[in-house]
Amino acid sequence: MNLDNIRKAKVGSIELANASIRMKNNALKLIADALSKNKKKILNANKKDIYLAKGLSKALLKRLELDSVKIDEMVKGIKKLIKLDNPVGNVLSAVEIDKGLELYKVSCPIGVIGVIFESRPDALVQISSLCVKSGNAVILKGGSEATNSNRVLFNLIRSAIAKAGLPEAVVELMQTREDVKAILKLNDYIDLLVPRGSNKFVKYIMDNTKIPVLGHSEGVCHVYVDKDAKLGTAVNVCFDAKCQYAAVCNAMETLLVHKSIAKRFLPVIIRKYSETNVEMRLDDESRLILEKSVNKKIINNYKNKKTLKKATGKDWKTEYNDMIVSIKVVSDLDEAIDHINQYGSGHTDAIVTENKSVANKFMDVVDSGSVMWNCSTRFSDGFRYGFGAEVGISTHKIHARGPVGLEGLTIYKYKVIGTGHVVSDYSGRKAKKFIHRKIKW
Amino acid sequence: MNLDNIRKAKVGSIELANASIRMKNNALKLIADALSKNKKKILNANKKDIYLAKGLSKALLKRLELDSVKIDEMVKGIKKLIKLDNPVGNVLSAVEIDKGLELYKVSCPIGVIGVIFESRPDALVQISSLCVKSGNAVILKGGSEATNSNRVLFNLIRSAIAKAGLPEAVVELMQTREDVKAILKLNDYIDLLVPRGSNKFVKYIMDNTKIPVLGHSEGVCHVYVDKDAKLGTAVNVCFDAKCQYAAVCNAMETLLVHKSIAKRFLPVIIRKYSETNVEMRLDDESRLILEKSVNKKIINNYKNKKTLKKATGKDWKTEYNDMIVSIKVVSDLDEAIDHINQYGSGHTDAIVTENKSVANKFMDVVDSGSVMWNCSTRFSDGFRYGFGAEVGISTHKIHARGPVGLEGLTIYKYKVIGTGHVVSDYSGRKAKKFIHRKIKW
Lengths: 441, 441
Fold this sequence. Notes:
- The structure is a homodimer.
- The first copy, chain A, contains 15 helices and 17 strands.
- By secondary structure, chain A is of the alpha/beta class.
- The first copy, chain A, has two domains: about 5-215 and about 400-415, Aldehyde Dehydrogenase, Chain A, domain 1, CATH 3.40.605; about 220-380, 3-Layer(aba) Sandwich (Aldehyde Dehydrogenase, Chain A, domain 2), CATH 3.40.309.10.
- In chain A, helix 3 packs antiparallel against helix 7 (about 145-165), helix 5 (about 70-85) runs parallel beside helix 6 and helix 6 (about 120-135) packs parallel to helix 7.
- Chain A starts with a helix and ends with a strand.
- At the A-B interface, helix 10, helix 15, strand 13 and strand 16 of A face helix 10, helix 15, strand 13 and strand 16 of B.
- Strand 16 (about 410-420) of chain A pairs parallel with strand 13 (about 370-375) of chain B, so a sheet runs across the interface.
């Protein structure tokens, strides 16, 4: 790692932080143009990476591999980003402290962001663009399998930034495995670290740095089907939450069912799951209900496939990221909430009910970044929330929580404007009093 | 440390988080009443602490010692807090994702706050009250010299909380030195740590925990006197920023002066400082100006007191917290800004000028939590900013920056309300499109 480049990025971050939205958007436009114009160059570099990455699983290879369509999508993403409002320079609140003394809270970039990401070249483009738009410098460390692709993309982005009249040093790329360890120690330079990748990797990062980390380590999401749920809604939501895309953090892992509706609901959803080859881990009560149910045939069928198992204590804390669901019958709303607050990961949890006050209690008391009523946990996502671009999803409880958009890459500063005001006038016996009146701006 | 009590605090935090503002304010009222009614008991315990704390410096004893007036002030502080708006349950933004599918961003408490504070019993009351108002549980660890006072205050607060019908477990007190180490490891229970005390102590905490820390390690604050400054304003602001109260983090440590105004300004301010026994550390240029100035007599006088010294490189990074100031002549605005961004601590920095565009550039580019124009750095404070109550001042660049009020003890959650919406309808060939229209609420 070249510490001098990190220093340059920090210095450059001050200039970028104060660049006009016109300049930042122009830089983004030039990045998009550069990608479009240099498709061949990018794809050739990517071919090298694919050739060298023979040991990778099919899923990982798919992430690593670029094609013309993927590059078009990157370009589209940047063009969307250009259309978003400037996240910095906005007055968040304003107060008249005293006559002629005013306080403004103004949004601004954080400074230098460190991002450690998987072997996925499109991530490099997305992250760099987000940082340009939000006025932050970024230190990138991509997965080693994408070395050649990343290098080409990085060079194109740097040139575009320079062409736009901004300091190219605000984007810096590191590529060796040792660089990860080095980045973790850069707490004097990096203000926020965003690790992407497996839960284990994110946890490793969190445990080994003093830099604040934005990320989530786990997504153990629940759907609770209340006694006042509409059966059709419950089935649709629970099916979507588990099956629409099981490998992601906002998919449901545990289904909680109120005992009063369990006899009607469970046979239906279990049949639907069984038809889709979802493996189920049942608690004793749901197992009992199932055995008494009319769907014996299907269940026997299913049992033979060995996909109907007994849930153990471990299941309640497990993020399967797969077509597996644990199922538990609860005796009331409180038991559901307690279960979620105890075993959940504070990511996303949903209730299905027609009872508004029950829904409100659930959403108030469940301590998660996203709480949902009569819709699928799969909606928990920056794009679906309308943030335009997503930095990641945070299960932390400070700074940014839930899906994080551009706003998560900003903080604020206070600007105080006076006309010679001094504190000594406001202390002692003849102390002047403060007004503290909200200003509309 | 009793881990069971920490668990109880976490469980209780969920109930407190959802308590109505009426209940929380009632708990605060009962705390205030209990303090008023039990003055004698509190003062007796405090006498024990004072008796046992014979080794303490005068300043520390003053912080430790309570009297009737100080208790009245605590009560007044709580009554002010009662009047503040509820910081939780506020809708921060709302979006219609699609017809019948709405997203609300709602403020909520963080959860469990850990506070490690100096031997100052009024801090215990202030912190507990802030946490009750913001709906957070709090794990307190006070300085050991205040053991008896803290124990009495803690018991009164606990009883008042229970009397208000809230779980008393949400306030927990630890008292042994080993407890500090134990708290640092409670990252599964404590969501945010607020250390108070010396810079060294805060830094130790930051370096030894995985819990996010809210605090500031240093306050190296600057005033820059621009060439277009009004002389009177410059003198007043620079005198107030240094002398109104020198022992605090928002006092000025370094005075930067534009070379064009230095010959007129420096002799005046140096004379004023010298009359107040401020020790000055001058760079070569300001020294030269001084030697040529008309105030020879005063300067010689001052020199004899040995309070006029040569500044060394170390001075630019030093927080004196005392009647000492370093002075440097700069050739332009950019040099001033660069100096501040290089040597400052990102706390509070001010400019004195009549030139609006110069002031705006200074406030935009200086990368500090508070930036000021024509007023004293000493205004950088939660009470003066109108926050009513102050948690502390943060020089971090995530979550909360600058003076932190009740808002710094809150975060948000997303509530998504649908009518059976599933993600599969929004993917694939016939994908429905999102509306993403802002809702006024």
